[in-house]
């Protein structure tokens, strides 16, 4: 294929523009077939050495979700304690997780010990396996957004504690904790920008050497 139509290119840009980090979800369930359609895009993602190092854990039990939420609550308090003044005031008002409402919650890991791919491309930069997982997450995120679903990435967690609570194999590294569900509302501007936490740069700075 030599290229995609201009309409498709415009739609793709719109999809990227409307891909938001969602933290406010409705509690409505997500159809299982729809979720599986989105998860199937992991297998379309590129990976270093074709290692496909992503590992997905779906948290469904009350115990697993309660442990993850307690983990977030403790980590969030520690993060708040690290701010002062106006930043502390803004931070305390932020909703930084949809863990109490989102019907689907996924812990995405990288299997750093995988034999698949025979180490190709990861010998000098083993972190490329984790970058591959991030690429797969992006595929999933865009597929979910295209279907009207929202995704929120919770990064305020103690990964070692989560590993223990979920009893993951040794050699797995937490890359993302994702909340998935139907968003309460849609906005093409990041919430952190709307509330004045930070602003986007006007343009990409490209340096030459």
Could you outline the blueprint of secondary structure elements for this entry?
Blueprint: H1 6-18, H2 32-39, E1 54-58, H3 62-81, H4 85-93, E2 104-111, H5 128-146, E3 150-154, H6 159-166, E4 172-181, H7 191-194
Antiparallel strand pairs: 1-2, 2-4, 3-4
Helix pairs in contact: 2-5, 3-6
What is the CATH architecture term?
3-Layer(aba) Sandwich
Query: Per the principal axes of the C-alpha atoms, what is the gross shape?
Result: globular
User: What sequence of helices (H) and strands (E) makes up the elements?
Assistant: HHEHHEHEHEH
Quaternary structure of the protein: single chain
Cα radius of gyration in angstroms: 18 Å
Q: How many structurally independent domains?
A: 1
Biggest sheet, strands in spatial order? Answer: 1-2-4-3
Helicity, as a percent range: 25-40%
Low-confidence stretches: none
Average pLDDT metric: 95
**Total beta strand runs:** 4
What would CATH call the homologous superfamily? Answer: NADH Oxidase
